[in-house]
Amino acid sequence: MRIAVLHFAHETVTFLPNDTTLGDFTYPGSPASGEALLAHDPRSYMGGFVKVAREYDGVELVGIESPLWPKTGTGSGWITEEAYETFLGRMIAGLKEQGPFDGVYLSLHGAMGVRGVARPEADIARRVREAVGRRAFIVGTFDPHGNEDAEFLAQADMAFTVKYFPHYDSHLQGQRAARMLVRAIRGDYVPAAVTVKVPIITPTVLQWTGASPWMDLVQRALVWEAREPDVYVNVFFGFPFADVPDVGLTFQVMTNGNAALAKKVADDMASWAWRRRKGLLNTAGVYPIPEGVRLAKEAMARGETPVVLADHSDRSGYATWILKEVIAQDLSDVLIATIADAKVIDALKGEGVKVGDPFDREIGGLADESAGQPVRVTGTVVGAHEAHGTLWVSVAFGRNNVVLISRYLTQIVEPSELAGPAFDLAQFKAIAIKSRVHFRRGFDDSGFAKTILLVEPVEPFLGTVRLDGLPYRNVDLKNFYPYGDVEFPQARSS
Hints:
Elements: E1 2-7, H1 34-38, H2 45-53, E2 60-63, H3 81-98, E3 103-107, H4 120-132, E4 137-142, H5 151-155, E5 158-161, H6 170-186, E6 191-198, H7 214-227, E7 232-236, E8 249-256, H8 259-275, H9 277-280, E9 287-288, H10 289-302, E10 307-311, H11 321-328, E11 334-340, H12 342-350, E12 358-363, E13 375-387, E14 390-397, E15 401-406, E16 430-433, H13 440-443, E17 451-456
Parallel strand pairs: 1-2, 1-3, 3-4, 4-5, 9-17, 10-16, 10-17, 11-15, 11-16
Antiparallel strand pairs: 6-8, 7-8, 12-13, 13-14, 14-15
């Protein structure tokens, strides 16, 4: 049994002005093939898939040359046609040269945005199908923030989506994909799938599955999987910061040859979501940044620390709104992690920056309107080290404050990511980070933070909860709740 393994993933913020280019996907280690591809992400989808697939006798995995995540992370816009066609072309050529294959595994995301390609993941599946033929089975794994409809499964056979946000179960879904692909190849599972889209669009910061009703939505999917053998329920929360035609909430259900059961479960999930649509938009409160910083200052005075200020809205990494307010409101003992500024990082690297150097320059801002203006920071370099594959520089300023400067947008997920020689994390009463929900893994679920404040700028910029402030061209918000007078006839009344 020969299985081809491929990877092509990006969560594309199409409103950002900087395209994601061929060069962004090309760096030491990317693209990857063979064992390098199979081993590149042992704790996520790929690791789970490889682990389980290799537990079966006679399974050969072939890592086809694939790009890894771009070095920009999610802080970049439309993928260029050149980048997409170059890498997909190489992947298709590799399939043809190294085939035939009994199965194909596609490690995807679901919110990839490509200039000139309406549904990239479905297009990938179509072109893979043309390369491997109808006999081979194709399975994909997805992030719950995928924007998907029925088109992917029109070409592929199965899809498995992470259920939790933060994404705790990526490895498990990779395992599931491997197990079911082997079963399908052996003839033990005949996929029958139904897809239902629900006209609800939600900001990602409100999709936290640690609270109702998103927690309840995931639990309902899990109950269906528990009570009905060989039923698998995918919940695509949707990614509203991609201006693509298949945005919004989507349910996919797969069964072993039972299309009627798949439809029953999909309709039930969709109806449940529609009945609770108001609650899906009210999972968490979000404060304007000036108010959030004021509330953080008050919590610090009361001793309700550490405080986490989570700026969910910064999509470029360059935003300076929190930094500006920390200075304006004269907060002390604050760590800001991070402000992205590639030019400053390059300049400091060229100067041979070292601990103890004086620092006096503007940082951040100007990447786009959402980033605000640069802010002048005067202080002392207290750290300069490699992190996330690039140079990070820590600057102490004001009254026991530190700002971390990075090259790219960085979501801090765990407090341990901030550990290092530059400072002791315990010295700070507040930590300001750029994250939507992922940070809850290390700062909330662990009990680390005593106070959590979700914040965004006053204006409705790129990552806002006020989606009607975004310049959509391919999406009409009036077709979605809560922005239009929308009906969903498929929903049952009970």
